[in-house]
């Protein structure tokens, strides 16, 4: 089997995504034997998906996690992007209070462009706490919006808010699924979790899943451009980075444009039927 066929590749529009994002994958055994029947190993169905991005900062939600959300909405599913903090301390020239308003406005505009909901918690930038209050707050959003799939930060990040988000999401998914935790909304089990490709979370990030974003790529990048730091205004050229990553991931997965994702270890189990 070539290295390319070892990767999970998810053919566009929520179809394959809805199925692939269900945890353990059932593969055609001929693939396991090294005879892939097609370049796409994903099963497909027609069910639209519901994807939630949960990020430390509003920019991360859209830049690193927005494309899978856009794929879901494009296919008639639902999408939401939850920011734990606005990221208001990210500018060295614009005061945090003003910059935070700009980021919130940008997130709302960007979400509208991809047909998704912009959701916010209000922790100060750099001070996202890892505690039960935060985990239950995220749990409540999960129960309210009922995503099948969550995309969030990988823990190998230099940014403390990103690491905090990783931890919070683990607990929030657990709390959301257990009916014994009585909240305003009933329990909801998240089917699958993925970690996003983020330049700040690169330590130990090993992608195993490639999602075709070709139909939504232009719209997603246009949505990202609503943000005041997108073109390098704060020192990092997000536009060039994420647009070129979409091309590079597309090359690796035989799609025109793609994003790569990483699964939790327990979600990588594959079940193979006998012939
Ligand atoms: Zn961030």
Supply database-style keywords.
single chain, 275 residues, alpha/beta, Rossmann fold, 8-stranded mixed sheet, two-stranded parallel ribbon, 10 helices, 10 strands, 38% helix, binds zinc ion
Span between termini: 19 Å
Low-confidence stretches: 1-6, 12-45
Strand content: 15-25%
The third-level CATH topology is: Rossmann fold
Bound molecules: zinc ion
- How many β strands by DSSP? 10
Biggest sheet, open or closed, and with what strands and sense? 8 strands, mixed
Order of helices and strands: HEHEHEHHEHEHEHEEHHEE
Topology:
Elements: H1 3-6, E1 8-10, H2 13-20, E2 25-27, H3 29-32, E3 50-57, H4 58-63, H5 66-74, E4 78-85, H6 96-113, E5 117-120, H7 132-145, E6 149-152, H8 160-177, E7 192-196, E8 209-212, H9 217-224, H10 238-253, E9 258-262, E10 270-272
Parallel strand pairs: 1-8, 2-10, 3-4, 3-6, 4-5, 6-7
Antiparallel strand pairs: 7-9, 8-9
The site of zinc ion has 6 residues, from strand 3.
Please explain how this structure is put together.
49% of the residues are buried. The protein is globular. The strands form 2 sheets. The chain has an 8-stranded mixed β-sheet with strand order 1-8-9-7-6-3-4-5, sandwiched between helices. It has a two-stranded parallel ribbon with strand order 2-10. The chain has 10 helices and 10 strands. Mean pLDDT is 87; it is low at 1-6 and 12-45. It has a single domain, classed as 3-Layer(aba) Sandwich (Rossmann fold). The protein is an alpha/beta fold and 275 residues long. Strand 4, helix 6 and strand 5 form a beta-alpha-beta unit. The two termini are 19 Å apart. Helix 2 crosses helix 5 and helix 6 runs antiparallel to helix 9. It binds zinc ion. The site of zinc ion has 6 residues, from strand 3.
């Amino acid at each position: 089997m070539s290295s390319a066929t070892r990767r999970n590749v998810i053919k566009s529009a929520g179809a394959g995504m809805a199925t692939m994002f269900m945890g353990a994958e059932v593969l055609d055994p001929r693939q396991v034997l090294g005879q892939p029947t097609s370049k796409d190993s994903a099963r497909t169905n027609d069910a639209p998906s519901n994807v939630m991005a949960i990020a430390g900062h509003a920019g991360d939600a859209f830049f690193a996690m927005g494309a899978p959300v856009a794929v879901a909405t494009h296919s008639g599913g639902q999408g939401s992007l939850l920011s734990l903090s606005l990221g208001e301390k990210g500018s060295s020239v614009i005061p945090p209070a003003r910059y935070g308003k700009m980021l919130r406005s940008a997130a709302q505009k960007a979400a509208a462009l991809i047909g998704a909901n912009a959701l916010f918690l209000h922790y100060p930038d750099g001070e996202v706490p890892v505690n039960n209050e935060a985990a239950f707050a995220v749990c409540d959003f999960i129960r309210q919006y009922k995503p099948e799939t969550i995309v969030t930060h990988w823990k190998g990040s230099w940014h403390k808010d990103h690491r905090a988000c990783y931890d919070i999401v683990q607990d929030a998914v657990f709390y959301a699924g257990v009916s014994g935790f009585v909240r305003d909304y009933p329990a909801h089990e998240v089917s699958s979790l993925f970690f996003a490709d983020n330049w700040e979370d690169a330590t130990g990030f090993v992608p195993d899943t490639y999602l075709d974003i070709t139909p939504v790529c232009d719209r997603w990048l246009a949505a990202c451009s609503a943000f005041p730091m997108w073109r390098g205004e704060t020192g990092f050229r997000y536009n060039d980075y994420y647009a070129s990553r979409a091309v590079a991931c597309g090359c690796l997965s035989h799609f025109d444009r793609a994003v790569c994702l990483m699964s939790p270890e327990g979600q990588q189990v594959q079940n193979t039927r006998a012939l």
